[in-house]
Design goal:
The protein is an alpha+beta fold. The chain has nine helices and 13 strands. Helix 2 runs antiparallel to helix 3. The model has no long low-confidence stretch (mean pLDDT about 95).
Length: about 280
């Protein structure tokens, strides 16, 4: 079985508190699934084999390893598998690649054994706070510790992205350690009613509490964003998640494509041309 494991962008991200009992933070965010994706193949085998290609993902405690272990512990199914992940989503980038991989593997395993995918969501939440979103995808309001997923009826209206990864790995744990004050979250309830989210509305709500904190510590990243803002001619830009990926939003697909063809040969960074993804028709 082959399955796509897509990335996400945080169009809005605030930290609203912390659970002192377990140390996890509460978030209020807008997640948008995008077309940048890893490709995962899973097949029955005589012995377990988990392989990553394209990007080195070391160790035996990756989100893919944990997803397989949790699936077995929960279902009692002891079948062996060969799992190969062709990595395109950078790691430590704020794009949710590891979380998406976990959700994709759990979804595929459930389908292979005719188990409802919804039964995998609690397992995903134990792997990481972003994992539950990837069982739903599209555009969602995400709250709590990541487990409260509210799919939105609205769609980004003719908007396109360039994602830049500057090869700076940001530890999510370290990023959260920088947060010393909390916000109230997105209070713009209009987002729940809008069917078409245009560039003006997005400009009004886009926010990332991590960005200022990370930029204070990583001056190279802050300087790069300033430079790319000048070169990429985007309508809006922001850091995604806890970083270090930066995303640039365009109303014009033609301008996005022209810029992408130019900058991919100029800068020594990885750039990705991608678009919003939705799993269901309106």
């Amino acid at each position: 079985m082959k399955i796509l494991s897509r990335a996400k962008l945080n169009l809005y991200l605030d930290i609203t508190g912390k659970d002192q009992s377990d140390g996890y933070h509460y978030i209020n965010s807008l997640f948008q699934e995008i077309s940048l994706a890893d490709e995962i193949s899973i097949e029955a085998a005589d012995a377990d084999s988990i392989e990553f290609r394209g990007i080195d993902v070391p160790g035996t405690d990756t989100t893919v390893h944990r997803a397989l272990r949790m699936f077995r512990d929960t279902t009692g199914i002891m079948q062996k598998y060969r799992i190969v992940t062709d990595k395109h989503i950078p790691t430590g980038a704020g794009l949710g690649g590891g979380s998406s991989n976990a959700a994709a593997v759990l979804t595929a395993l459930a389908e292979m054994h005719e188990i409802p995918a919804r039964e995998m969501v609690p397992l995903g939440a134990r792997i990481g706070s972003d994992v539950p979103f990837f069982f739903t995808g599209g555009l969602c309001r995400v709250r709590g510790k990541g487990e409260v997923i509210e799919p939105l009826a609205g769609r980004l209206d003719g908007l396109h992205f360039i994602v830049a990864y500057p090869d700076i790995h940001i530890s999510t744990k370290w990023a959260y350690s920088l947060i010393d004050e909390y916000g109230t979250g997105l209070t713009e309830d209009e987002i729940l009613k809008k069917r078409a989210i245009d560039i003006d509305f997005l400009r009004k709500i886009m926010y990332n509490r991590f960005q200022g904190k990370i930029f204070d510590e990583e001056e190279k990243l802050s300087a790069l964003k300033e430079k790319l803002d000048l070169e990429l001619r985007a309508d809006i830009s922001m850091m995604s998640g806890s970083g270090s990926s930066l995303f640039f939003v365009y109303e014009s697909e033609r301008i996005r494509d022209e810029v992408f063809e130019i900058i991919k040969n100029i800068f020594n960074y990885r750039f990705f041309r991608c678009d919003p993804v939705y799993r269901t028709e309106r």
